[in-house]
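Dear colleague,

As promised, here are the two records you asked about, laid out in our usual form so they can be pasted straight into your sheet.

NAME FIELD: protein one
SEQUENCE, THEN STRUCTURE:
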Amino acid sequence: MENPIYKARRTPRTLTLRRRCKQSTTSIIQMGEAKALVPESVVKKEKRNEEWALAKKQELDAAKKMRFETRKLIFNRAKQYSKEYDEQQKELIRLKREAKLKGGFYVEPEAKLLFIIRIRGINAMDPKTRKILQLLRLRQIFNGVFLKVNKATVNMLHRVEPYVTYGYPNLKSVRELIYKRGYGKVNKQRIALTDNSIIEQTLGKHGIICVEDLIHEIMTVGPHFKEANNFLWPFKLKAPLGGLEKKRNHYVEGGDAGNREDYINELIRRMN
């Protein structure tokens, strides 16, 4: 049975207000349903953005994994090279000791790598000598380059000997030159070797992906020495500490020009 109190309150005005409230509620519900109907273009855009975000995340994860594997490979190679250099040094010491015990001496194998430094300018230089210096990429004073020892390079060095000094660099010299003054040629531009990715980008197809690979290829005059050496920009060395003795005289005469064999390493220390 309906409460008489509520029945008494049913005035025309109250009924009108109730109808209006009911209509407002119905309108709000209809508006919510209208808002729920999202345009097809918006749905496609959201789906496309989600796909792009997922693809980007997968790409970043793959790149991160690749970087981790590359760092691991670089570490293992550096460790392998260090072991190889140590074994070579120990073998050399062993052979020298054996020769000494037998009353003789051990003759080391002929060097395969040269480092050439230009020490004189172009005054009174004949055109052929200038052309050879250009072929050797020695265009400025105190420029230095690595060179493979063969008959052709030895003949060229004899022609330009008064203008350059050269010798046989050791591992320490090669490493210090590349780490301290190494620049690479990327798209004909001189780029500092601040990241292994610079080397991998240019020489990765030859299996050279880091600085230690580059040092090993140069030091051992490996199968891709030409590509590695051409990648290296000519070294721009400073004037030697303490100066030069006599640039016009040969090294064996107390000067600076010509072949100084292993003593090139001492000059590299002064100029690096």
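NAME FIELD: protein two
SEQUENCE, THEN STRUCTURE:
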Amino acid sequence: MRALGIEQTVARIRAGRVTPTVRAADATQADAWARQIGAGGIHTFEFTATTPGWEDVLRHWSASEPDATVGLGTVTTAETAERAISAGAAFLVSPFAVPEARAVADRAGILFIEGGFSPNEIRAAAAHGVAKLFPANIGGIGYLKTLLSVLPGAQITATGGISLSEAGDWLAAGALAVSIGSDLFTQPDIAQASRTLLDSLRSSERTA
């Protein structure tokens, strides 16, 4: 897959609205979950560096699934960043500031989404492009609104403890996108849950 520019990657994340975190027991499960959300219409997501075999599944999806925009989350070292970029990651996500990993992404022209929670951490991350509010459920939607009131125009994704039913509220509050993990991947029919979620978000946008 041809590498995306940072602005194009951000545009895809914004358009997708939901960027699931595929944190699986192994690469086989990660691949299966990715296929199920894809069948449900979600094509922007992240595997995680905590999943055994993540490199192989990331490389496969980056090379052979042109409709997907696939990143790697839980990037905490420069080495992991380098391996992810080599495997074709369209973007990298960290749970906290990792300057050495950001430097690797910057050199490669790859979007790096840095996690933070305090106003200063979010300000610093957003100054580079996109910040990740993590863990989002601790502060809640009101906290995101407060952050955006003092950081107008900041691009902030929300991750951590977000349920399917809350996704639309986070987006309405100003999140660039939301990342959902366990509440999606514990559904009995992941593809149908993905379709239902996207339908709900579209309906909310039409009535907003």
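A couple of things worth noting about protein two: The beta strands are 21-22, 44-48, 69-73, 91-94, 111-116, 130-133, 156-159, 177-179. The first strand starts at residue 21 and ends at 22.

Best,
R.
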